[in-house]
Amino acid sequence: MVNMKKFFFLLMIGLIACAPPPKALAQYIGNVGLQTTQQTLATTVNCTGSPQIFPINNLGQTQHNLSVITGTQPTMFQAELDGIDRAGNVYRISDVIENAFTAVIAQGQGTATASGYYPQIQAKVTCSPGTATFTLSYSGSQVTFNQNSGSYLNAQIDHVSFAGSAGNVSQNDTYPTPFGSTAGTIYFTYNGPVAGGTLIVECTTNQFALPNGSAALNVVLANVATLQTFQVPDTSCPFVTVKYTSGGAATSIIADYVYSPPGRIVPATQYTHYGGTNAFIVKPSAGFLHTVNINLGNAAGTFSVFDLGSAACTGTPATNTVAVITTTAAASLPTFTYDVNMLNGICIKSSAAMDVTVSAQ
């Protein structure tokens, strides 16, 4: 009897030891979701002409959106989003907003977007004059993907370089290009009496300022108070500087640079009209020769093109000949298309007076 009790006792111990552990009940900690954040960074703050920094609450967001409204006309306005790494290095992670006051909606508007996680995030605004004001806000999340549409696309392609800036003072505007190219259109106007000037688009890289004569655009502005439009050729360009050189105009100016989105082709050449017999420099440094048109009403002779820079384009050039076109007085000739890179420059020379148009960049 004792042995049977002992047997059943040992059997129960064995069964308990082999039994699976009881299920643990999970603790309810509430609803969990990916973090989002919104923050008003500035409300009707005056411009200072120097960079103004606005720290952003960082809760682990990876998608960043910046919105700005200008309530009073700025002559120059730039806003961007920056990421700051663990070592304190600052990186621009968005495009640069360059907007202007719009009379239709009685304010200026702009938005920028950026992706990536950084330990710290900030917004930077640089604008003038001190009478201009702006309001700045931020939103961030971990799930919303950035889109190149609407006002975000507009901030990339439309850069207002000068908005009501003094026409009797030379002006510069520098920023990174949205697509690594200068391709686009510049719209320029004088708001009143004019006295001429020049408009130049220059490129720089992280290491170099490109040499003189290699500007993507270099035009003499007409002495008119109407809209002037200039196509800017497609040149590889990480950073662009838009330069206005004053001709003494006692008025204000507006220059709006609209970039071409990828996939849209903009005419990449500018024309030079030539009617003399002296050696003439079309491009003083390396460029691209597109076409030569020998127009009507010419004398018989030859028209020559040389791969030469400014210093060598004198007298009667005899080296680096690209083309020699024989003309007649009877009729015009067809368009000559070359599409070749010129390593030194584009120099032309005619043996007799001719009406010629050269298309190049």
Percent in strands = over 45%
CATH architecture call of the largest domain: Sandwich
Oligomer: single chain
What is the chain-wise order of helices and strands?
HEEEEEEEEHEEEEEEEEEEEEEEEE
Residue stretches low in confidence (pLDDT < 50, at least 5 long) are: none
Cα-atom radius of gyration = 32 Å
What report would you give on this structure?
This protein is mainly β. The protein has two domains: 37-259, Jelly Rolls (Sandwich), CATH 2.60.120; 270-360, Jelly Rolls (Sandwich). It is built from two helices and 24 strands. It has helices at 2-18, 150-157, and strands at 37-46, 52-56, 63-70, 76-84, 90-92, 108-115, 120-128, 133-141, 158-166, 171-176, 184-190, 197-204, 217-221, 228-232, 239-246, 252-259, 270-274, 280-283, 287-294, 301-306, 321-327, 336-342, 346-350, 356-360. The protein has a four-stranded antiparallel β-sheet with strand order 1-8-3-6. Strands 2-7-4-5 form a four-stranded antiparallel β-sheet, with no helix packed on it. It has a four-stranded antiparallel β-sheet with strand order 9-16-11-14. A hairpin with a 5-residue loop joins strand 4 (76-84) and strand 5. The chain is elongated, with a radius of gyration of 32 Å.
